[in-house]
Specification:
It is a single chain. The chain is of the alpha/beta class. It has a single domain, classed as TIM Barrel (Alpha-Beta Barrel). 37% of the residues lie in helices and 20% in strands. The protein is built from eleven helices and ten strands. The chain has an eight-stranded parallel barrel with strand order 1-2-5-6-7-8-9-10, surrounded by seven helices. A hairpin with a 5-residue loop joins strand 2 and strand 3. The longest helix is centred in the middle third of the chain and has 11 residues. The chain is globular.
Length: 256
């Protein structure tokens, strides 16, 4: 059974998040793809910084108190990611890395401003990596996934579901998503819900039977891994979203 390991923010447990260093580390660790967060500077340059959706504070990511919406790309280039010497990366860096290494890249837009998606799609086309890039966001922001495919029909899209009581297949087909991610942080509420209903197991298998990839995450513990990959418990997912690729691979090896 081949489980894909996907590096969240480039694998933030192994290198500074959203940086070329993290993508390089993910590649060296054998990750099957990496994710990055994209937002815009004042002069509309797409940069890789994790911020709250539709927010502009970069203090947690960089330690710098000024809002991203007040900074030009030239000014952002003077910043480094917190507790590191790694510079803030541009979307072009992530897409160039994907092209050079033929490595799947998952891009999460961090705003629904009208400029962001067209800029992301234009850069994806420029680097000729439509086949390698997947646009990702939470299902409640599904309009971004719909709009991404409207701009570039060949793009793959991924929706993060956080409601275990949802109709998974209906949600995926409504927006033509190629991938569904069962999303949680901390307590796995999908596991708790499935204990009483058994519907998660059935729905995961139903998605896969309809050609839709199913992932789970964030996977942080051996217990998370064991549940997610079990055909009997979760339905058996195709991929795991992780911060530490080698550790989760070790957990998988102990199971299989």
């Amino acid at each position: 059974m081949e489980i894909k390991l996907l590096a969240h923010r480039g694998g933030m447990g192994r290198a500074p998040e959203n940086t070329l260093a993290s993508f390089t580390r993910a590649l060296a660790d054998g990750a099957d793809g990496y994710e990055c967060d994209v937002c815009l500077t004042q002069d509309k340059q797409p940069v890789l910084i994790h911020v709250g959706f539709n927010q502009h504070s970069i203090q947690k990511a960089t330690g710098y108190s000024k809002s991203l919406s007040e900074l030009t790309w030239k000014e952002v280039q003077q910043l480094t990611m917190v507790a590191s010497n790694e510079p803030v990366a541009h979307l072009d860096d992530a897409l160039r890395f994907a092209r050079e290494n033929q490595m799947p890249c998952f891009v999460e837009p961090k705003a629904d401003t009208p400029e962001l998606l067209p800029i992301i799609v234009e850069r994806i086309r420029h680097f000729e990596v439509v086949h390698l890039v997947n646009i990702l966001t939470f299902y409640l922001r599904k309009h971004l996934l719909v709009n991404a495919k409207r701009l570039e029909p060949k793009l793959q899209t991924s929706a993060i579901l956080i409601n275990p009581a949802a109709n998974f297949l209906k949600a995926a087909t409504a927006i033509d998503a190629n991938r569904i991610i069962l999303g949680w942080s901390g307590i796995n509420h999908f596991e708790l819900y499935n204990t009483f209903t058994r519907t998660v197991t059935r729905q995961v298998k139903q998605l896969q039977a309809n050609g839709i990839v199913v992932d789970a995450g964030f996977i942080q513990t051996a217990k998370d891994v064991a549940w997610a990959v079990s055909s009997r418990k979760s339905g058996g997912v195709d991929g795991l979203w992780v911060d530490d690729v080698p550790y989760i691979r070790q957990c998988l090896q102990e199971i299989f």
